[in-house]
Write a structure and sequence with these properties.
This protein is an alpha+beta fold. The chain has one domain. Helix 1 packs across helix 3, helix 1 crosses helix 5 and helix 4 crosses helix 5.
């Protein structure tokens, strides 16, 4: 599936993505573990309103949606590949098992959680984020660049005395 086709189908694909993210978030909130004290402090620096709601769940690899159209769409923009180390699904964060408790990665995903909050939920965040990935490319998407810069600033902040 190429980008012009994805762009033309975007409004039909978005509800499928929203449903998948919502179901994955529920799973993570049920099965995941809370943030550590340091991760919670990072979350507060990043600007999260409700860090206590966040749960982390390790998986051997990033999950892919069951829906074949959604799978093909994710593959077309190189999203949810075997190289995916972490994924924020609003208040649920998936981490590849070999990256479990990687502070920098968790901070990066916490920025995405803050973006979900700032945009007002799953649908508005995904609309912006996925359009950016589609038009700019995943690594150059402004929300992705914000996550990279904000996470780096959060974990490299001076320690409190």
């Amino acid at each position: 599936m190429d980008h012009p086709v994805l762009f033309a189908c975007f409004e039909k694909l978005l509800p499928l993505a929203v449903k998948w993210v919502g179901s994955m978030e529920k799973r993570i909130l049920r099965q995941g573990v809370p943030l550590t004290e340091l991760e919670t402090a990072d979350a507060r620096v990043i600007g999260l309103r409700e860090p206590d709601r966040i749960r982390l769940l390790p998986l051997s690899r990033a999950p892919v949606p069951n829906d074949p159209v959604l799978q093909a769409s994710a593959a077309a923009i190189r999203f949810l590949t075997p190289a995916t180390r972490g994924l924020a699904l609003r208040h649920g964060i998936l981490l590849r098992s070999d990256c479990w408790r990687d502070r920098g990665l968790i901070a990066h995903e916490l920025v995405h959680t803050a973006q979900y909050e700032r945009f007002g939920g799953i649908e508005p965040f995904l609309r912006q984020y996925l359009l950016e990935c589609l038009t700019e490319g995943y690594p150059r998407a402004p929300l992705e660049q914000e996550a990279i810069a904000t996470a780096a600033a959060a974990i490299h902040r001076p320690r409190e005395s």
